[in-house]
Amino acid sequence: MFADLAEQSELETGRRSEGILAAAITFAKKSVQGLGVLMASFVLTLAQFPKGVSVDDVSDQAIWDLGAYFVPIVTAIYLVMIGALTSYKLSKEDFEENLRRLQDRTITEHRQ
Fold first, then answer.
1. Count of alpha carbons within 13 Å of 72, Cβ hemisphere only?
2. Is the dihedral of CA 64, 70, 73, 76 positive or negative?
3. How far apart are CA 28 and CA 33, in angstroms?
4. What is the residue extent of each domain of the chain?
5. Cα–Cα distance measured from residue 96 to residue 51, given in angstroms and rounded to the nearest whole number
6. Are 36 and 21 in contact (CB under 8 A)?
7. I want to staple 7 with a disulfide (CB 3.0 to 4.6 A). Which of 21, 33, 44, 98 is the partner?
8. What average pLDDT score do residues 63-91 get?
9. What is the tens place of the pLDDT at every residue in 46-64?
10. pLDDT of residue 16
């Protein structure tokens, strides 16, 4: 998808943007990692999961509460992700058309 987006971006803006796209991907990864730690802490706090105890001392209710918060939150995150992916409408034919248009543009620019 990264290469497809680079070609699409070039058609829309007239310039190559691989560096910006790579930076955006890296930023998104780091943001997700940070938000993941934050969300895990939030869910553990919400479930009142005990700190500093052995596995045997964790109550069944704490485990149940952890799952009761974790499953809906993870499901919601996946649904948002699926929604975002369904908005990606670039088919193989569209990509090939983008490449053809870029090649035509390059040929036209070299003739001038």
1. 6
2. negative
3. 9
4. 2-111
5. 55
6. no
7. 98
8. 88
9. 888 999 999 899 999 999 9
10. 81
